[in-house]
Design brief:
mainly alpha; 2 helices; 0% strand; rod-shaped
């Protein structure tokens, strides 16, 4: 390969790398904008990137507690005095 061909190949490589850099910079800007939008949305929900994991853990614990309470309520037998006064048994007395 002669010197002119090597220079042309190097120039082509430089142009390709510049195009790649430009494309990646554009993607980076898009990701930064999306991150900022996400942080703003998180603020409206009362969390930040720093507190989101703790909040998720708190909500998971709360959900487990509520599920356990619901299962407990559903598993116990309901006595007649716990029913509303106007309750009518659909299957008769």
């Amino acid at each position: 390969m002669d010197l002119a061909a090597k220079l042309k190949a190097l120039q082509q490589t430089i142009e390709e790398k510049r195009a790649l850099r430009d494309r990646l910079e554009g993607q980076l800007q898009t990701l930064k904008r999306q991150w900022e939008e996400l942080v703003e949305e998180m603020k409206t929900l009362g969390v930040t990137p720093e507190t989101i994991e703790d909040e998720m853990e708190r909500l998971q614990t709360e959900a487990k507690t509520l599920l356990s309470e619901a299962e407990s309520l559903l598993s116990r037998e309901v006595t007649p005095h716990e029913l509303p006064g106007d309750y009518q048994d659909p299957f008769g007395p």
